[in-house]
Amino acid sequence: MSTPGALFAGLMSGTSLDGVDAVVADFSTPHPRIVSSAFVAYPAALRQDLLSLNAAGHDELHRSAGISVKLAHLYAQATQDALSNHGLTADQICAVGCHGQTVRHQPALGYSLQLNHPALLAELTGITVVADFRNRDIAAGGQGAPLVPAFHDQILRAADEHRVVLNIGGISNVTDLAPGRPTRGFDTGPGNMLLDAWAARHLGTPFDAGGRWAAQGRLDAGLLARLLDHPFLALAAPKSCGREEFNLDWLDTQLPTGLDAADVQATLLELTARSIVDATLRECGAPQRLLVCGGGVHNATLMSRLGALLPGSKVVSTAEFGVSPDYLEALAFAWLARCCITGTSGNLPQVTGARGPRVLGAIYPA
């Protein structure tokens, strides 16, 4: 196979359902560099439509297909914005990696469903698209997630320091980068998902900015104990999860009557922090450095709690190592697209549980 060009684009729209992150990355050196980036927010109506598809409902096939078309147009806009921000043109990009929007993740049943229309995206952008990254791993007996630990290993591993990379999106996941040990990774449980949903219900805002509302509440020990008793949190790695396990319907079944909404938010923040730290210590041991990315890095209250629960670790943003915490996952999907184009495996079997390394993704030529 011929050597591809150096520029790849990556798109990520995660379980937080806030919008599309886009990057153009230069892979001409061992450490890829983000050349340009862009963000396109989801319209409120689209976000609600996506939320509704996480549970059984009326006419799901038609609704899913229509949303996939809308997503393709948003993905194309984000891609074009990233190109325009650096004066680039489509013919300079080898391929764009597009994860799609996850609405069902059921690896135990043999599938993971991301809404996407990669053929339309290729038509709209004039760029080859690589999509459907998870299902090849699932077909090989894996979880299909998390997929970014292989990329973390490439750019954030250090020979002389035990690092754990923590991505706090809707779901939290960690990558264990311990010297002398194979890279491992897994989902730890809820990240921003419950925090955002509770804020939307009671504040009418998409998230609790900086964790300030949570900081005003008081931890409810009884509620926290019930939430921490969720079966997923006790599972050993490899494991992955989604909205199927952690959602407002589940939370409502755990709530006592009369609890102040701010106290619930404070308790949900502690659930996120404790589930991350408990799983990290149990599976990885205490790291020397916890490198945080994803939307949760901007939640000062949550970052403070992580530091308090890991007093022997330095809790820092990936920005301190030259990687934008907001665009690291989009960069990872640019890398995964490059792996697919070059016929290189993109999964780590010890992370996902797959039977072996696999080339991930399906190619839709421009």
What would CATH call the homologous superfamily of the largest domain?
ATPase, nucleotide binding domain
**Major beta sheet summary:** 6 strands, mixed
H-E order: EEEHHEEEHEHHEEEHHHHHHEHEHHE
CATH class identity of the largest domain: Alpha Beta
Average pLDDT: 95
- Domain count: 2
Cα gyration radius (Å): 20 Å
Structure in words:
The chain is of the alpha/beta class and 366 residues long. The protein has helices at residues 44-52, 60-84, 118-125, 134-139, 149-156, 193-203, 212-216, 221-228, 231-234, 248-254, 261-283, 300-309, 328-342, 349-352; strands spanning 7-12, 19-26, 33-41, 96-98, 101-106, 111-115, 129-131, 163-168, 171-177, 184-190, 289-293, 314-317, 362-364. It has a six-stranded mixed beta sheet. Helix 2 (60-84) runs parallel beside helix 3 and helix 11 (261-283) crosses helix 12 (300-309). The longest helix is centred in the first third of the chain and has 25 residues, at 60-84. The two termini are 18 Å apart.
Features:
Nucleotidyltransferase, domain 5, 6-stranded mixed β-sheet, 366 residues, alpha/beta, 2 domains, 13 strands
Q: TL;DR?
A:
The chain folds into 2 domains: 7-144 and 327-364, 2-Layer Sandwich (Nucleotidyltransferase, domain 5); 149-321, 2-Layer Sandwich (Nucleotidyltransferase, domain 5). It has 14 helices and 13 strands.
